[in-house]
Amino acid sequence: MKKKAIIPFAVFIAGLCSIIYELLISTTATYFLGDGVRQFSIIIGVYLFSMGIGAFLTKFLKHKPLVFFINVEYLLGFIGGISVPLLYMLFVYVSPTVLQISCLGIIFVIGLLTGMEVPLLTFALEDSNIKNNLSNILSLDYIGGLIATLIFPFIILPFVGLYYSSLIFGIVNILLGIALNYTILKDKKRNSIYGFLVIAVLLVLVVFGGRFLEVWDQKIYKRPIVLNEQTPYQKIVMTKNSDDVRLYLNRVIQFSSSDEYRYHESLVHIPLAMHPNPKRVLILGGGENLASREVLKNKKVQHIDVVDIDSTMFHLAKENRYLKEINQDAALNNKVNLIPEDAFTFLFNNDDQYDIIIADLPDPTNQAIARLYSKQFFLMAKRNLKKDGVFVTQSGEIYFSNTVFSCINNTLESVFETVEPYHTYIPSFGDWGFIIAKHGSNNTVINPEALPKDLKYLNPNQVEQSFVFPLDITIAETKLNTLDNPIILNYFLDDWGKWKADFESGTK
Questions:
Q1: S-S: 73 plus which of 172, 177, 203, 319, CB 3.0-4.6 Å?
Q2: What pLDDT is stored for residue 188 in this prediction?
């Protein structure tokens, strides 16, 4: 009776933990290697394949199914528990190729062990009706998987984090094995010592986790960290070295306070100078409110909507002393309306129209961001523009990532009648591109008098030079980026993949 009561519970916990490991490793691989669709697809495929192998191997373990199940839990808890800390360490010391192979190796072993769990528990209940046992066990396993997928994005990732989650669920796996050992296999209590030893190892990693993560972060960012926060959407890190403050989202630098004004002045004031009376401005992204700081310098502007998916960025823009100093309290200005919403969803649902729309969005490093450079996204931006309105988007580095720059330009040309690329040099980033788009076929005319007098970088001559490109920078032929075919993600990975080895060798 006791066996029949505890085994369903064991199935539920085993299914929960196994899916959590899969999600943890897939998310970690996405953070470190990019391209979430590719990482999740490959890792899920390897996971399912290895589960099949594990299920096949259990036919050789029928004679002592519960003993083998308990040992599987010990091993699964240990490997699943150390999976994320191990990948963190490998990220610092090995190449992306080795890291990718390591991710697949870890998920293969986890899938192999996971595939053994349900058959072993089914064999353990073979004295009863096998058909009923199998259906009950599978249903509980699937329910555990469902709950894992629900708690992962809403609780585990934002409140616990990847590192501690893998260790905690590893301990849960091992405690499950120990519980089965003590309640069912009473003559096998010596076997529990292995479980307690593994728990001791994982607890050491938990206790010293803060110190480990601090050392790891310093190796990654190489500057003193003054903010380190995980949100449901991204990992936010801010560093400060002397007077230079840098913001990173998912380890990708967003700005350096030493030269961000070059980027934001170019992004904002050139399109503003093309509009005779820019009253209403929409900023997509830019939750740190540096773009809105620049827009506020134009006295004609009466209203600014800032749309960013992560409300934590708005909170930091209003409360963090470093950001407040850099954005000059723009987030607290009564002209600025902060909207915590996805940019794509906002444009789809919005009925108001704007004089200026500024897309201050991250580079297309994953599927979710790639759609913000799609033809469909630009069509919605066009619908949200007034007839004399101006749309501008940041478009990445124009030399090292020319294909991405060209793809954005070509996709915009399929939507807008007038498209004009321009660029400026930003020491922290390189030669950075922007693209302006307008209704109609009128040429872009810039009013030099519209430039604010208190700018640090732009002047009329610099604005004129921004539209002049060197001979070795041209717009390449590319496919259009669409929701159905987000080709820009492949372009991004290919472009930077060509130069990554040179960059890494130059920084060591």
A1: 177
A2: 61
